[in-house]
């Protein structure tokens, strides 16, 4: 199963792992893996995802039954009940946190207009942190105002909106932050071009399919890029303004990806069994995610 934090903690996206294994499939059940995509994956059964991975811990042997029960419970929540399950990870040498855990803001911006937008994005992210985005609730109920779909069905809309939001967060926004931190040959204007070229089409499309806050936020960022970034003679300040907006936006978009994955009607997976010999679906998913 994957525990997927919404916020891309920028430094963790580009910090190389000290230790990796060539194939996570062969690692023992109970292994925890941490990825640059901000997944904390816990192996609790058969895996098919034979990819390089960075193990960061393991579940104690005496807790394996509880782990498998938790993994199957998460799958049941995703595929049947749609219950949102909060997972809290904390330092076991300290008391278990019981209070509300607020999301951190890595950057706030400098100008008044940018601060206001970053705070608005953060507030929307915080509102949906332990539940579902109000926009995506409507999409996954067939209530998007645009009536996006095919042949009077919104099934394709659920597929397409996830297919656009996931790479927008993981591949576009996260990587702009990564490039800004690790590629000094990319100046501010290069970063702005990356945003405008690669984020514009998916943002507009998912706006049509029902992600209204995402689309309006993209447009507001584009306006502020013109007013507060490209029109700012102080390049250091302009760079901080730009990255503050992208950081907040990335956090929100990655949350929507998690919302989409939770909301998708996974109960239909039984209609499409893997046809190859040896396929295992004992834990609800061949990759135990």
TrEMBL record:
<feature type="domain" description="Cucumopine synthase C-terminal helical bundle">
    <location>
        <begin position="114"/>
        <end position="262"/>
    </location>
</feature>
<dbReference type="InterPro" id="IPR040602">
    <property type="entry name" value="Cucumopine_C"/>
</dbReference>
<protein>
    <recommendedName>
        <fullName>Cucumopine synthase C-terminal helical bundle domain-containing protein</fullName>
    </recommendedName>
</protein>
<dbReference type="Pfam" id="PF18631">
    <property type="entry name" value="Cucumopine_C"/>
</dbReference>
């Amino acid at each position: 199963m994957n525990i997927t934090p919404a916020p891309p903690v920028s430094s963790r996206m580009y910090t190389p792992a000290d230790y990796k294994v060539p194939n996570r499939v062969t690692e023992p059940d109970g292994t925890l893996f941490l990825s640059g995509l901000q997944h904390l994956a816990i192996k609790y059964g058969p895996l098919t995802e034979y990819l390089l991975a960075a193990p960061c811990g393991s579940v104690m042997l005496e807790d394996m039954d509880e782990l498998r029960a938790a993994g199957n419970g998460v799958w049941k929540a995703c595929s049947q009940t749609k219950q949102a399950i909060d997972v809290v990870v904390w330092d076991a040498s300290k008391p278990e946190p019981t209070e509300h855990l607020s999301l951190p803001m890595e950057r706030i911006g400098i100008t008044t207009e940018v601060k206001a937008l970053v705070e608005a994005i953060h507030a929307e992210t915080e509102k949906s942190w332990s539940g579902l985005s109000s926009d995506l609730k409507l999409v996954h109920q067939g209530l998007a105002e645009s009536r996006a779909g095919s042949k009077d069905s919104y099934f394709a809309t659920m597929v397409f909106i996830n297919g656009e939001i996931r790479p927008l967060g993981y591949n576009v926004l996260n990587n702009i932050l990564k490039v800004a931190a690790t590629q000094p040959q990319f100046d501010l204007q290069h970063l702005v071009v990356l945003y405008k070229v690669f984020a514009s089409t998916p943002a507009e499309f998912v706006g049509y399919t029902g992600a209204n806050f995402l689309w309006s936020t993209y447009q507001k960022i584009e306006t502020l890029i013109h007013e507060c970034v490209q029109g700012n003679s102080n390049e250091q300040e302009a760079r901080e303004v730009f990255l503050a907006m992208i950081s907040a936006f990335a956090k929100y978009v990655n949350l929507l990806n998690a919302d989409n994955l939770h909301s998708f009607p996974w109960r239909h997976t039984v209609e499409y069994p893997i046809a190859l010999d040896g396929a295992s679906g004992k834990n609800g998913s061949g990759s135990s995610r």
